[in-house]
Write a structure and sequence with these properties.
Elements: E1 2-3, E2 8-9, H1 13-18, H2 23-40, E3 44-47, E4 51-54, E5 57-60, E6 64-68, E7 71-75, E8 80-84, H3 92-98, E9 102-103, E10 107-110, H4 118-130, E11 138-140
Parallel strand pairs: 1-6
Antiparallel strand pairs: 2-3, 3-4, 4-7, 5-6, 5-11, 7-8, 8-10, 9-10
Helix pairs in contact: 2-4, 3-4
Protein name: YdhG-like domain-containing protein
InterPro entries: YdhG-like
């Protein structure tokens, strides 16, 4: 079974965010950072070179096994990606209220933080933090 390449590390979250060149994206990331900190009570940790995660759980999937964060985010060129492992495709009532976004399997893509309804986003983050799941994975809480 393959181990994940992306691992938690000691890199500075503050330095990572300060190095984001786009001012709007940097501001949005700071906002999401504070929001996730307050909702999870967890410290922000760098995972790999570009992901900021909160909390940690161990999982075993069909082809890989490893530790991963409950919720997190990453500033990408096109979008700000929020990693929310709460089976987003099943959260239709919340997603309808969220505002401008796109979803992937466990990813919520937003262009600008101001495009989303914050109380709804908070509900999605809480749901993901409280019940992490990855399709086909067995989750072991550390």
């Amino acid at each position: 079974m393959a181990k994940l390449k992306t691992q938690a590390n000691d890199a500075s979250v503050d330095k990572f965010l300060a190095d984001i060149k786009d001012e709007q994206k940097r501001t949005d990331c700071q906002t999401v950072l504070e929001l996730m900190k307050s909702l999870t009570g967890e410290p922000a940790v760098m995972w790999g070179k570009t992901k900021v995660g909160f909390g940690c759980f161990h999982y075993r999937g069909k082809t890989s096994e490893g530790d991963w964060f409950h919720v997190g985010f990453s500033p990408r060129k096109q979008d700000l990606v929020l990693y929310l492992h709460c089976e987003l495709e099943k959260q239709t009532s919340l997603l309808e209220k969220l505002g401008k976004h796109q979803i992937g399997k466990s990813c919520l893509y937003i262009k600008k933080f101001e495009d989303v309804h914050v109380p709804t986003l908070k509900k999605l983050i809480k749901k993901a933090y409280q019940s992490p799941s990855i399709a086909g994975a067995t989750i072991d809480q550390p």
